[in-house]
Amino acid sequence: MSVAGESGGRAQQMRAKAEEMKQAAERATDPQERQRLTEKARKLQEQSEQQKSHMRNEDMDTLM
Hints:
- By secondary structure, the protein is mostly helical.
- It has one domain (3-63).
- It has helices at 3-27, 31-63.
- The chain is elongated, with a radius of gyration of 15 Å.
């Protein structure tokens, strides 16, 4: 598997995990737990977006 493929897979896993945490936050009854899960989901989503952006930049560098 290529580095780009591994990075893409990792970004996809992070997005899936973020979605799971978001859903868990919606089900949480404790406000602190809900906030903690929401924050973790947001951070994972940001990381996956950064990784995706980084992969796009690498693809553009390869084309030049």
